[in-house]
What does this fold into?
Amino acid sequence: MKDKELDIAYFLSFCIEQYKNKHQMTGGEVVALFERYGVLPYLEENFEVLHTQGHQWLMEEIDELISKRKNETER
It folds into this structure.
């Protein structure tokens, strides 16, 4: 695995773990939620910008993304 791919994998797992802790969810629940709303591809595609942010900002960004996509699917 290339270094950047490994960095992205670590970043995605970091985001899952942080989100799990913030919302008292299991890892499986977080992965299912992220898959449902396309969070992981978003994080991967925007890795260069997002990985430089603090974890609190990242959690807010993920919450906003999920909320926005929930609203879009309810229409």
Q: What stands out?
A: The longest helix spans residues 3-23. The mean pLDDT is 95. Helices lie at 3-23, 27-37, 39-45, 47-50, 55-74. Residues 35 and 48 are 21 Å apart (CA to CA).
